[in-house]
Amino acid sequence: MKKFVSILMLLSPVLLFAQDYPVGYREISVYDSNRERDITAYAYYPAVQAEENASPVEGTFPYIVFGHGFMMNQGDYDYLYNYLVPKGYFFVSLTTETGASPDHETYAQDLAFVCDNFYDLMLDDVVFHDCVGPKCVVMGHSMGGGASHLASSYTQNMEAIITFAAAETDPSAIDAAANANVPTIVFYGEGDAVAPPDENQIPIYNSSNSDCKILIGINGGIHCYFAESQWACDFGETMSGSDAGIEREEQHDIVTDLLGLYLDKKLKGNHASFLQFVDSVDNSSRITTQASCDFTEITTDELYQFEFYPNPTQDVIEINIASIDFEVSIINIMGQTVKEVHNKKLIDVSDLKPGTYVIQVITGSRSMRNKVIIW
Fold first, then answer.
1. For residues 139, 286, 253 and 267, what is the CA-based torsion angle, rounded to 10 degrees?
2. pTM for this entry
């Protein structure tokens, strides 16, 4: 049975242009002086070309800190970063605690530290200093999912926690979830016998103190289908007797479809994506959901708010609005309309003189204005 209550939260826009970027990647290491510990990871990022150490594209991007499963590593989640990075996200995939005897608490502290400090540390980085925005989401699979919930004991700076087949940890991720007061999504596969939902994800969801938490069960999904095919996970899945009712690729598609829409709203303030997310969660036959929030309680004011970026700009402005019928006008300081478009979210302003303008959006009977600087 589905239960919903209001999730909508207004966020300032990220200075980001909507397009698909090549995926660059780079090995990084950050130092936690309090624990005297080097934390290693791969950073995947929007780049000018798809190769190691490629130059990042211009722009400011929010970041995701990701925790891998037991005996797994960053390369086992290619489908996630290859989907998210081209859409304008940094994906920081940790490579600590990959051995046969991982320390769950240490791993949770690694995730919390990177979420807390990656933005500040990259301000001094020669390559990434202008590219990383301050907003962070913590995500993880299996052990890394449990550690993501456990990380809420060490930081509350994440914008959300999103986990896939999260496994109970030592200390307890179930107990730690009670510390979380940020939006939380808990994915599980209904056929998972490695970390059975009744013993892992559902107790984590029930324990969570989040005002808006969402439990999403993938019909026919299993534990290791949240990752690429990997010998250790697949062997454990076979031995445990998990029962898959769908193919791995379909499970990946379900995850990326929902995840992309949610992050587009959560980290970029895209209301249109939020409406699509609500529709998918409410109506998709591929999932079973439960939530502590009612997505249907969206006010008219929230639906008709608009955002635009980048600002300042010298070539284009992108409008972010949920409405499908709207007029956009660019007005100079003399009150003259110098550009006007209908139902067009991408506006070329390269022909306008540098200066301060007013951007006006009219939808229905509502008229909204804001300043934009063209240089």
1. -40
2. 0.78
